[in-house]
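User: Hello! I'm new to structural biology and keep hearing that structure can be predicted from sequence alone. Could you demonstrate with SET domain-containing protein? Please show me the input and the output so I can see what each looks like.

Assistant: Of course. The first part below is the input, the amino acid sequence of SET domain-containing protein. The second part is the output, the predicted structure written as tokens.
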Amino acid sequence: MAPAADPVPTLANELPPPTHPDRLRVDRSTKAFGSGAYSLIDLPAGAVFAKITTATPGKKAYTTVQTGRDSHIELNSDLVFCNHSCAPSLVFDMGRMEVRVVDDRPLKAGDALTFFYPSTEWEMDQCFQCTCGAGEGVCRGWISGAKTMSTEELDGYWLNGHISELLHERK
């Protein structure tokens, strides 16, 4: 999955209504993959940010999130605007179908809503050069999914069960 792209409006010049207007705002950009989501609320570390309730099964694509070894979903919500970061603010827990604040720091209003794509994706549909700005030693650079990353590169990241299982099998 590459950084979120804008969904196609339903009618000419009309955007779909926000799905989480009390939780996040979407800053839209005309630049490819330039849009992003930002928190409207403060939450403590580990708190549930949102339940994933509007998802539908989908084929592997840059807009989907991997939920299991061979399954993907379309989020069908503003959560699709949560971009990748190597220093994420959120965890997408596909086993619980919820989005949580990372365990090591709280979320503040105005923070970019990001997650570590290899935590859900074994093989990315569209690989990309990371520009998260997390800094040397933190930013992983080329993002192509957990399959191509070493155990050391993934150490310290929260990973979904299907990713942990595939990593164990790889050994």
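User: So the tokens describe the shape?

Assistant: Right, they're a compact way of writing down the 3D structure. Reading them back into a model, for example: The longest helix spans residues 161-170.
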